[in-house]
């Protein structure tokens, strides 16, 4: 690579900073357009169509996830950095929403929604809404990419708000791991260690997932290292592994194109 990896990271940080500064007004404008669009169609019929597509895509996804020994395709580490850095930002938004829903806003939310309704919204309605939104016909241009990423950030924050409210009256054994650490490791390690990884898929998986788990261990020694913490960190690692496998096999493609 001819450019300095750190320059790319700084450029990405500045890009996201600028997007957050002017993106809210654009987000609200496009969100209104999406609401108008979805009101014209039959949600139930669309759900059936997408359900059939999901069944067909499931086997293809499992094949890609299980492939740990084939050589890597030409890996664009900048695209990988962009994708997983934004995943980390969304997870931070989710954590921020959980703090609001679990600590600051429970008394207010109790007057609006019950815990059961919040669980239904968080784990059924909201995921279906995100899936439907990602499959809307949308041209792949910079403005649409900006809108798509920021609306996903809004969905993640809302998910965190509902989840925090659901568990606001529960006694947790220990503090959970910071989920954003795993995508941060997956985004940064290949970018700075591309010469070491080369086309070796095993090295990519070992360094990124292993590096993310080590980060969790380091933070856990500060927060609270416990068995539930380790199990959650392992779960985040497995999710990161599956996402990484799908990403490197679809890099350069629109991941939500029909």
UniProtKB/TrEMBL annotation:
- UniProt entry tagged with the keyword Aminoacyl-tRNA synthetase: no
**Pfam families this protein is in?**
ZYG-11_interact
Q: Which InterPro entries match?
A: Nematodes_ZYG-11_interact (IPR008574)
Is Transmembrane tagged as a keyword? yes
Domain of life from the UniProt record? Eukaryota
Q: Which UniProt keywords apply?
A: Membrane, Transmembrane, Transmembrane helix
Q: Which PANTHER family match?
A: MFS DOMAIN-CONTAINING PROTEIN-RELATED
| Name by which UniProt lists this protein | Uncharacterized protein
Q: Which organism is it from?
A: Setaria digitata
């Amino acid at each position: 690579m001819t450019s300095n990896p750190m320059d790319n990271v700084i450029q990405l940080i500045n890009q996201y900073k600028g997007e957050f500064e002017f993106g809210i007004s654009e987000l609200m404008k496009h969100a209104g357009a999406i609401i108008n669009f979805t009101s014209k169609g039959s949600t139930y019929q669309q759900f059936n169509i997408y359900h059939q597509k999901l069944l067909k895509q499931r086997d293809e996804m499992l094949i890609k996830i299980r492939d740990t020994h084939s050589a890597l395709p030409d890996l664009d580490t900048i695209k990988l950095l962009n994708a997983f850095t934004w995943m980390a930002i969304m997870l931070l938004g989710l954590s921020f929403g959980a703090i609001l829903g679990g600590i600051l806003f429970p008394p207010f939310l109790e007057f609006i929604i019950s815990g059961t309704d919040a669980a239904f919204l968080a784990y059924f309605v909201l995921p279906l809404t995100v899936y439907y939104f990602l499959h809307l016909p949308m041209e792949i241009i910079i403005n649409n990419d900006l809108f798509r990423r920021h609306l996903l950030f809004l969905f993640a924050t809302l998910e965190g708000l509902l989840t925090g409210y659901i568990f606001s009256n529960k006694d947790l054994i220990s503090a959970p791991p910071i989920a954003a650490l795993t995508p941060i490791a997956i985004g940064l390690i290949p970018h700075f260690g591309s010469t070491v990884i080369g086309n070796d898929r095993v090295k990519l998986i070992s360094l990124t997932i292993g590096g993310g788990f080590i980060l969790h261990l380091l933070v856990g020694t500060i927060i609270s290292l416990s068995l539930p913490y380790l199990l959650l960190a392992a779960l985040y690692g497995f999710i990161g592994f599956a996402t990484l496998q799908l990403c490197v096999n679809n890099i350069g493609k629109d991941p939500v194109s029909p």
